[in-house]
Amino acid sequence: MGLKDKLTELKENALKEINTAEDLKKINSIRVNLLGKKGPITEVLRGMRDLPKEERPNVGSFANKVRDELTSAIAERKERIEIIKISKRLEEEKIDVTLPGVPVKAGQPHIIMQVIDQIEKLFLGMGYQVVDGPEVEEDHYNFEMMNLPKDHPARDMQDTFYITDKLLMRTQTSPVQARTMEKHDFSKGPLKMISPGKVYRRDTDDATHSHQFHQIEGLVIDKNITMADLKGTLQLIARTVFGEEREIRLRPSYFPFTEPSVEVDVSCFKCNGQGCSVCKNTGWIEVLGAGMVHPNVLKMSGIDADIYGGFAFGLGPDRFAMLKYGVDDIREFYLNDVRFLKQFSQRG
Ligand code: FA5
């Protein structure tokens, strides 16, 4: 058999093998065997040495043609195998859109935030602005502008985390009162604001006290504001958050920045006013302090106390949340145990 016939036969057999190869591994091994240095084509070409000189170019170019044909047959087959592989995968990985979905675990606002949101909504509806203040506060705003000069004995009412002589972790949201009053332009109308946020005190943690807790400050300054406006506002807050059934009481109290001052208690959720360990046997839980803004506070913020007056309050959303949801230990709010928190889902 001549070399050309040998090559033709080899090509036909190789093409059969190439076109029936099922995977890339197989096609790669065919390529190496067929076209490699020890492969049959190289072998045939070696036989050219025995051919007469004039026949060599003819056979040589035929051999190159065969090699090119096989190379492109291999490339085509390779591509085909890839396509088959992809369509097989697509077939296998088809998504069944009728299968039920995997539920996604959604978070929710913390129970204290839920109370703050509720109170914010109530006040926004009455035209109050919501104001933010810094948690790292100046002694000047936290105490002095609130009518608590240095060495005033009432500073002991709020044991303080000091950072420097002049800087502290605010013990109350009341400094936002001074910050807002200083900036207010009364030609544009009365001042009505609330300010929710975190406050810090060196209190010993127990069932109703935490060293970090929340307050919502409220402040209204205008002409002719009376104690009756304050009482009506406090009653509205209590009814909105707790419903009609829970009672509130006002007790005379003292704050350096209000005169007169009151403290507001809500009847204990646990014993319904009978007295228990949560309310320390009083039947009541203190939830907020309030009063008529002291003239000194107005004056220090540049407001004419002969024309303007108002009321202020500072309520504890943590205590509100305890009463509203029947939580008998404030520390639960700060442990962030998901099993506890998810009991109060807004989604029901
Ligand atoms: C004040 O902080 C005043 N700034 C409130 C105020 C504002 C009075 C404006 C008048 C005018 P007091 O220290 O009582 O007041 O705290 C207010 C409320 O914060 C309390 O009624 C209580 O609900 C809450 N509270 C106080 N200490 C703690 C504590 N350690 N843990 C949790 N809640 C607390």
UniProtKB/TrEMBL annotation:
What keywords tag this UniProt record? Aminoacyl-tRNA synthetase, ATP-binding, Cytoplasm, Ligase, Magnesium, Metal-binding, Nucleotide-binding, Protein biosynthesis
Highest rank taxon of the organism: Bacteria
Q: Where does Mg(2+) bind?
A: E259
Q: Does the keyword Membrane apply?
A: no
Question: Mind telling me which GO cellular component terms the entry cites?
Answer: cytoplasm
Keyword field contains Transport: no
Top EC category: ligase
EC number, as in UniProt = 6.1.1.20
Required co-factors: Mg(2+)
* Catalytic activity line of the entry: tRNA(Phe) + L-phenylalanine + ATP = L-phenylalanyl-tRNA(Phe) + AMP + diphosphate + H(+)
- UniProt domain Aminoacyl-transfer RNA synthetases class-II family profile: residue ranges: 119-343
**One example of a Gene Ontology biological process annotation:** phenylalanyl-tRNA aminoacylation
Location comes to: Cytoplasm
UniProt-listed Pfam families: Phe_tRNA-synt_N, tRNA-synt_2d
- Tell me the cofactor note: Binds 2 magnesium ions per tetramer.
Q: From the Swiss-Prot or TrEMBL record, what is one GO molecular function term?
A: tRNA binding
What does the similarity note say? Answer: Belongs to the class-II aminoacyl-tRNA synthetase family. Phe-tRNA synthetase alpha subunit type 1 subfamily.
**Which NCBIfam families does the annotation name?**
pheS
Enumerate the PANTHER family for this protein: PHENYLALANINE--TRNA LIGASE, MITOCHONDRIAL, PHENYLALANYL-TRNA SYNTHETASE
Q: How does it assemble?
A: Tetramer of two alpha and two beta subunits.
This protein is called what?
Answer: Phenylalanine--tRNA ligase alpha subunit
